[in-house]
Design a protein that fits this description.
The structure is a homodimer of 412-residue chains.
Chain A lengths: L1 E7 L7 H16 L2 E7 L5 H12 L5 H25 L4 E4 L6 E3 L8 E4 L2 H8 L3 E5 L2 E3 L5 E3 L4 H12 L4 E6 L20 E3 H9 L7 H10 L3 E5 L7 E4 L12 E5 L2 E10 L4 H11 L4 E8 L4 E9 L3 H15 L3 E5 L2 E7 L9 H11 L4 E7 L2 E7 L3 H11 L13
Parallel strand pairs in A: 1-2, 1-9, 2-6, 3-6, 9-11, 10-12
Antiparallel strand pairs in A: 4-5, 7-8, 11-12, 13-18, 14-16, 14-17, 15-16, 18-20, 19-20
Amino acid sequence: MALIVQKYGGTSVATPEHIGRVAEKVIATRGAGCDVVVVVSAMSGETNRLLALAHAITDRPDPRELDVILATGEQVTIALLSMALQARGCPAHSYTGAQVHILTDSMHNKARIMDIDAARIQHDLAAGRVVVVAGFQGVDEQGNITTLGRGGSDTTAVALAAALKADECQIYTDVDGVYTTDPRVVPEARRLARLTYEEMLEMASLGAKVLQIRSVEFASKYNVPLRVLSSFEEGAGTLITAEEEGMEQAQISGIAFNRDEAKLTVLGVPDQPGVASRILGPIADAGIEVDMIVQNVAEDATTDFTFTVHRRDYTQALAILQDVARELQAREVSGDDRIVKISLVGVGMRSHAGIASRMFRALAEEGINIRMISTSEIKVSVVVDEKYLELGVRALHDAFELGRSGGQPEGE
Amino acid sequence: MALIVQKYGGTSVATPEHIGRVAEKVIATRGAGCDVVVVVSAMSGETNRLLALAHAITDRPDPRELDVILATGEQVTIALLSMALQARGCPAHSYTGAQVHILTDSMHNKARIMDIDAARIQHDLAAGRVVVVAGFQGVDEQGNITTLGRGGSDTTAVALAAALKADECQIYTDVDGVYTTDPRVVPEARRLARLTYEEMLEMASLGAKVLQIRSVEFASKYNVPLRVLSSFEEGAGTLITAEEEGMEQAQISGIAFNRDEAKLTVLGVPDQPGVASRILGPIADAGIEVDMIVQNVAEDATTDFTFTVHRRDYTQALAILQDVARELQAREVSGDDRIVKISLVGVGMRSHAGIASRMFRALAEEGINIRMISTSEIKVSVVVDEKYLELGVRALHDAFELGRSGGQPEGE
């Protein structure tokens, strides 16, 4: 009998009525002959309510105690969903993270799963029950309650699917799958039937916030087939798996973008070993995460060093760079917080030449100036002025014919 | 170093501000040189909110799952109180019932505590921490979450005090102690400095709803000194202990009363063995609890059999009795749901004659007709018409001089 792990997020369990509908979906899956383990998040709004209570007590709540209060959110949902299943004649048992020994490290508020004891769940499945597990939470070796950080319920679901050797891990969200790009920007955007873990990771980290990155890494590591689908609509969603040999790959699966970028450049830096770390060291020390990094050699034996950060860190990063530039005797520091990043993602890119040039040509035809370029094995990212975001994404979506059924562009 | 277990109920932790004040009380106790273990209830209103959620899912929530959702109420409070203590520089750790192994039987919604593992708490106390434990909840041998039923937090506190061999278990409520009677009825009612477990049990079961009966039984069994005091006012409260040899006992400690009674009589029952059980059997089978039972032998070899039930069960009990009376060939069934019970309680009663007659005289002087009488070792209860409740309680409070400092009546 197939074993399916299903995960329902906060908007899918927002009210008792929503929970009733989730119960019906679970029962339908059982009706199709599958064993089901369900992972649920807190009802939407609940985590924020609990955080507000904690912050009414103190500005800086103790991380251990914050996990104790936050874990109640999912505990409420598991009980309600189990009741809803039972009320519909479907045997069910709920479990907190601690009860099924979702063992984590002791990093409160951002713990990582180390082990799961599958025995209790398997026993319940064998007894004909649906097992409902609280997402987002675990327990450390000392028995302290831990949480996995925002979006951690996805990780719980994937980890359970791996531990139980489930046939599929289904992530129910408020979208019906992963799209070639954001349909709000490109109305012709098309749902992707399949995607590889690597592509999903690039899509997720570049701003397509469908799945938590960590859960995709986890799925990739344990080779758990992952399916993103809608709680509110019927449909097959998007299946995310390892790349299969001989599978005909589209060159480009999708276009991701990120509006939250800012760009900083140190101009005329003496071109010496160790310069990059002298520039980025103080930035890292300030807890600022760096995204793209580009370095060009200029003509006069100096170099221009450019990187991007989250827009909220722009002002702080700029101030740090002024000091660094003085020390390095760099010519100038410049920056721009009105930029965006657009990325083409696709495993097919590996075996096809000319993707980048085709991308640049498409942008040039629209008069869009490229400010930065960065490439990896399965993506090409460009930084452009913020005002060109929609135009650029639409031009690329069109150039690579992503809106067409099948999405396979003609020739190269 | 003295060890104090303190329990704060729902109204004492109703808001983050209340919780801050509880933290300050706990810190003051530590400042006086005591180790402190704190037991808390759910914030007032929270348990009802959770119940409403469950009932929005189904009319008859599964008992196991109901415990899972209800247990979150106290879990929120322990986290908030620990945060509040830490924010004030006082080291603290919170624990759910499961985390400190408050082992119960598996009777969901009304579980009984079987064992507590004190080691983890003692370790934290030795490390200089305040330990904050969720009241009302435990865990059964299979690891399922259980709850102890309404008011169960008192029982948790007493059980912890017993397991830890605490010097005192302090129950903080919204009243400043146990009174000679309800001050709303008798403004001169006086707070009792001390009371025995037996007296408290009689007072509690007779309607003085200060402490949960089970917690008093537990305290009595393990000889845990119990103190009832106010969260909102200073004061020594009421200390409840075993009766001490040579302790000068007031004859009467207090006057309890119960407005929720109804009285039923089967008149002219043939006076044969087994009649009582033939009358009360069907009542018990219907799940109706019987309080007082009185049987008089009448002149014609028949008997009148009278008992009281909760007023809400009156109509049902009356219908049952009509059938029973027919079977027994009893003369008549009568009843009255406009009666109340007034009880004098006091361990001193055991060694003093004449309490009952003095009671009856005091009532007679006010023209109050006594409808039923029942006595036990430390109490005398009478049933009177509802309209005489306040008059009767005041007359007795006066007659036994309970309002006077010391409360010891002159001679007998």
